[in-house]
Each structure stands twice: as C-alpha cells, then as structure tokens.
Amino acid sequence: MESLNNVELWTEDTNEPRQVIVNTEWGAFGDNGVIDFLRTKWDKEIDSNSLNSGKQMYDLLHFFLISLNNLIFVLFLFAPLPN
What we know:
Layout: E1 2-3, E2 19-20, H1 41-48, H2 61-78
C-alpha cells in the first residue's frame, strides 16, 4: 500500500482512503538484455521454446524453474550409470 501523497502520477479519485496498491510491472525486466549475462544455456533453451521468446523474462522465472527441473530430470534419467 502506498499513500497518494507519494504517488506523483495519480490522476484518479483522491477521496479517502488515500492509499493505492502499486503494481511495479517487473515482468518485462530483462527484455532489453540487461540480465542476459546471468542466463544459462538452459535458460536460453527454455526461452527459445517458449511462446513469447525473449519477452517477460523476469515474469517467466517460475516457468523456467519448473522447466529446468524437467530438463535435469530427463538428463539424469537417460545418463549412463557410473560403474
């Protein structure tokens, strides 16, 4: 919750209660490549197979984690057993 006194761009209703919930829209963070140096080959593989490749990178983090777990599971499932 944020007080309307601190929300400079608010142009709507200013009656009580003078508070709003601010959605910071972090979903598109990284779409401009600013976090590419953090992405692994698995992140890139999952992203390339997604419906919106290169979009909503931060928002898709939970999807990436689930897909990464699946990739690791398949990797170990078909990996040769040590002697």
